Amino acid sequence: MLQIKTKSISPTALSAILGTDNALELLDVRMPPEYATAHVPGARLIPLNELRVEAFLAQHKPGTPVYVFCQSGTRASKAIEQLEGTGCDDCVLVEGGTQAWMDAGLPVHRGTSSALPLIRQVQISVGSLTAVGAILALAVSPWFAVLPLFLGCGLFYAGATGSCALMSLIAKMPWNRLKKSCTYCCASE
Description:
The structure is a single chain. The protein is an alpha/beta fold. The protein contains nine helices and seven strands; from the N terminus they run E-H-E-H-E-E-H-E-H-E-H-E-H-H-H-H. The strands form two sheets. It has a five-stranded parallel sheet with strand order 1-6-5-2-4. It has a two-stranded antiparallel ribbon with strand order 3-7.
């Protein structure tokens, strides 16, 4: 079994390095609406579900560190695992992701996104479907109790693994897609 040895850095330490070296590679693997709301200046967006390792490595200069962000660290760890699995040992996890960067008071590029944050969309979906399932189970047939049970199991799985199938599905909805012109708005920063 391949053992992944991920290096990590705190947001404040990375900020200090960025102050002296602007040629660093910053990779943000969140979804476009999350990126559009707020991201680290100069971070390149490649959502985790769109990360093509071979294409990324073809543009990557070996030996140059790749600092990987997501919202809190889970997706960034998965991206690093994919990259390291192909032999790229230049990856560095930014501890706590974009949220820790913002919590540290470091600068972010704030944009606008008309979509609610993905986690809120998931909460609204799960909450409403659970309520509907419970009402139908009480009013129509007890078999409708399967719906809240299924949703509860899905939430447990998402919490235990850090992987949410419903979030992945909602992220692909048309209202969560950005126009190509906005996706890399800070590539020149």
